[in-house]
Write a structure and sequence with these properties.
With 178 residues, this protein is mainly alpha-helical. It folds into two domains: 1-111, no CATH class; 120-168, no CATH class. It has four helices and three strands, in the order αααββαβ. Strands 1-2-3 form a three-stranded antiparallel β-sheet, with no helix packed on it.
Amino acid sequence: MTGLLDRIGMTRLLEDARGRISTLESDLSVAEQRNRQQGARIAALEADLDDARGRAGSFEDAFAALRATVERLYYAAHWSPDRSVDAATLWTDVRDAAGLTPGETGKRLGEPRHTTSERYTIVSDDDGHDFVIPADKVDDWHEYMKSDYFDDTNERDYARYINGALTRLTFTDPVIGG
């Protein structure tokens, strides 16, 4: 009987060992699957990191180009007659460095308020107040001054009041009598 008991004990031990081996193999399989998933995650993170490094490099390049363009713009703003500045090229470089789409300025800002070729003149009202008005509005100004509608509170929208002495005005390329 003792031999039978020994064999039964051994059988149980063997069954327990097989059960433990099965559990360990299952745990190992799960661990290997997790490792593969972690490996895939690590590979995806490494790819994302490489992509981010590439974008950072291109951002650094774009920032360096923008900085250089803004620096040129800054120094061009300190213009003097002895220095020539190609404004069109400079503003094109600024636009390109900032990544703005060519041809969008008119859509974004609307029509220009005035052209640089517009001429102005200085006129006075009957009280001695001086105004700057577009040169092509002089006849309208004089008609207005003669009209019954004239008073100090009803000035023309194109007239800019000079609050103080005429010496406060500055000019570029003035034309006298022309």
